[in-house]
Amino acid sequence: GGQPRQKEPAPGLAYFHIPLPEFNNFTASNFTGVKQEKGISSASINSGFFNTMVEAGDVKAAFVGHDHLNDFCGKLTGIQLCYAGGFGYHAYGMAGWSRRARVVSVQLEKAASGEWQGVKSINTWKRLDDQRLTTTDSEVLWNKL
Asked: Is the pLDDT of residue 6 over 80?
Protein backbone atom coordinates (compact mmCIF):
# COMPACT_ATOMS: atom_id res chain seq x y z
CA GLY A 1 0.00 0.00 0.00
CA GLY A 2 1.00 3.58 -0.63
CA GLN A 3 0.86 6.62 1.57
CA PRO A 4 -2.54 7.25 3.17
CA ARG A 5 -4.39 10.03 1.36
CA GLN A 6 -5.32 13.19 3.22
CA LYS A 7 -9.10 13.56 3.32
CA GLU A 8 -9.25 17.36 3.12
CA PRO A 9 -6.88 20.09 1.92
CA ALA A 10 -4.04 20.84 4.32
CA PRO A 11 -4.29 24.27 5.96
CA GLY A 12 -2.25 26.66 3.83
CA LEU A 13 0.24 29.25 5.05
CA ALA A 14 1.30 32.12 2.76
CA TYR A 15 4.53 34.09 3.13
CA PHE A 16 5.33 37.28 1.21
CA HIS A 17 7.11 40.55 1.93
CA ILE A 18 4.76 43.47 1.19
CA PRO A 19 1.58 43.65 3.31
CA LEU A 20 -1.78 43.61 1.57
CA PRO A 21 -4.13 46.62 1.81
CA GLU A 22 -6.36 44.50 4.08
CA PHE A 23 -3.81 44.96 6.89
CA ASN A 24 -5.38 48.44 7.21
CA ASN A 25 -8.58 46.86 8.57
CA PHE A 26 -7.18 46.34 12.06
CA THR A 27 -7.51 48.64 15.03
CA ALA A 28 -6.04 48.19 18.52
CA SER A 29 -9.19 46.30 19.55
CA ASN A 30 -8.92 43.45 17.03
CA PHE A 31 -5.32 42.28 16.87
CA THR A 32 -2.54 40.86 19.05
CA GLY A 33 0.82 42.65 19.06
CA VAL A 34 1.76 46.22 18.15
CA LYS A 35 1.11 48.57 15.24
CA GLN A 36 3.69 51.37 15.40
CA GLU A 37 4.13 52.42 11.78
CA LYS A 38 2.28 55.56 10.66
CA GLY A 39 0.56 53.55 7.94
CA ILE A 40 0.57 50.14 6.29
CA SER A 41 3.07 50.11 3.40
CA SER A 42 0.90 48.16 0.99
CA ALA A 43 0.40 48.66 -2.73
CA SER A 44 -1.87 51.60 -3.61
CA ILE A 45 -3.94 49.31 -5.85
CA ASN A 46 -5.69 46.28 -4.36
CA SER A 47 -4.73 43.27 -6.49
CA GLY A 48 -7.51 41.06 -5.12
CA PHE A 49 -4.97 38.58 -3.75
CA PHE A 50 -6.61 38.53 -0.31
CA ASN A 51 -10.02 37.73 -1.84
CA THR A 52 -8.38 34.98 -3.88
CA MET A 53 -6.98 33.43 -0.67
CA VAL A 54 -10.44 33.65 0.95
CA GLU A 55 -12.08 32.00 -2.08
CA ALA A 56 -9.43 29.23 -2.14
CA GLY A 57 -10.60 28.33 1.36
CA ASP A 58 -7.44 26.55 2.49
CA VAL A 59 -5.22 29.51 3.47
CA LYS A 60 -5.40 29.94 7.25
CA ALA A 61 -2.65 32.54 7.76
CA ALA A 62 -0.49 34.96 5.76
CA PHE A 63 2.79 36.39 7.04
CA VAL A 64 4.48 39.60 5.86
CA GLY A 65 7.42 41.86 6.66
CA HIS A 66 8.33 45.28 5.24
CA ASP A 67 6.96 47.44 8.08
CA HIS A 68 9.64 46.73 10.70
CA LEU A 69 7.82 48.33 13.63
CA ASN A 70 4.64 46.28 13.26
CA ASP A 71 4.40 42.78 14.70
CA PHE A 72 0.66 42.18 15.03
CA CYS A 73 -1.69 39.37 13.99
CA GLY A 74 -5.38 39.86 13.28
CA LYS A 75 -8.08 37.68 11.79
CA LEU A 76 -10.02 38.89 8.76
CA THR A 77 -12.58 36.79 6.86
CA GLY A 78 -11.18 33.58 8.36
CA ILE A 79 -7.51 34.31 7.61
CA GLN A 80 -4.93 35.39 10.18
CA LEU A 81 -2.84 38.27 8.81
CA CYS A 82 0.47 38.52 10.68
CA TYR A 83 3.53 40.71 10.60
CA ALA A 84 6.86 39.00 11.19
CA GLY A 85 8.32 41.78 13.35
CA GLY A 86 11.60 43.60 12.70
CA PHE A 87 14.41 41.07 13.02
CA GLY A 88 17.61 42.14 11.26
CA TYR A 89 20.05 44.76 12.47
CA HIS A 90 20.84 45.92 8.93
CA ALA A 91 17.60 47.94 8.57
CA TYR A 92 15.61 50.48 10.56
CA GLY A 93 14.17 49.72 13.97
CA MET A 94 13.30 51.72 17.07
CA ALA A 95 15.45 52.43 20.11
CA GLY A 96 14.24 50.46 23.12
CA TRP A 97 12.14 48.06 21.06
CA SER A 98 13.84 44.65 20.84
CA ARG A 99 14.34 43.05 17.45
CA ARG A 100 12.01 40.08 17.11
CA ALA A 101 11.17 37.11 14.93
CA ARG A 102 7.80 35.41 14.53
CA VAL A 103 7.87 31.66 15.08
CA VAL A 104 5.20 29.47 13.48
CA SER A 105 4.66 25.97 14.87
CA VAL A 106 2.47 23.35 13.19
CA GLN A 107 1.31 20.37 15.28
CA LEU A 108 0.36 17.12 13.57
CA GLU A 109 -2.06 14.48 14.77
CA LYS A 110 -0.63 11.06 15.51
CA ALA A 111 -2.50 7.79 15.04
CA ALA A 112 -2.56 5.15 17.77
CA SER A 113 -0.18 3.16 15.54
CA GLY A 114 2.32 6.02 15.75
CA GLU A 115 1.86 7.26 12.18
CA TRP A 116 1.67 10.99 11.61
CA GLN A 117 -1.70 12.27 10.44
CA GLY A 118 -3.06 15.64 9.31
CA VAL A 119 -2.49 19.07 10.83
CA LYS A 120 -4.02 19.49 14.29
CA SER A 121 -3.17 23.13 15.02
CA ILE A 122 -1.01 26.09 14.00
CA ASN A 123 0.45 28.33 16.71
CA THR A 124 2.62 31.43 16.67
CA TRP A 125 4.62 33.63 19.00
CA LYS A 126 7.44 36.12 18.80
CA ARG A 127 10.94 35.60 20.14
CA LEU A 128 12.64 38.83 21.20
CA ASP A 129 16.36 39.43 20.88
CA ASP A 130 16.70 40.65 24.44
CA GLN A 131 18.73 39.41 27.43
CA ARG A 132 16.31 36.54 28.12
CA LEU A 133 15.20 35.77 24.53
CA THR A 134 11.68 36.52 25.72
CA THR A 135 8.68 34.79 24.16
CA THR A 136 5.65 37.05 23.71
CA ASP A 137 2.14 37.09 22.20
CA SER A 138 1.62 33.32 21.95
CA GLU A 139 -1.59 32.50 20.13
CA VAL A 140 -3.39 29.76 18.24
CA LEU A 141 -3.82 30.72 14.58
CA TRP A 142 -5.84 27.68 13.56
CA ASN A 143 -7.28 24.54 15.17
CA LYS A 144 -8.82 21.51 13.49
CA LEU A 145 -12.43 21.26 14.63
From this structure: no
Span 92-135, pLDDT tens digits:
988 888 999 999 999 999 999 999 989 999 999 999 999 999 99
Across the chain, mean pLDDT equals 92
CB distance 129 to 138 below 8 Å? no
Overall average pLDDT of the 47-64 stretch: 97
Rounded Cα–Cα distance for residues 55 and 96 (Å): 41
End-to-end CA distance of the chain: 29
pTM beyond 0.85: yes
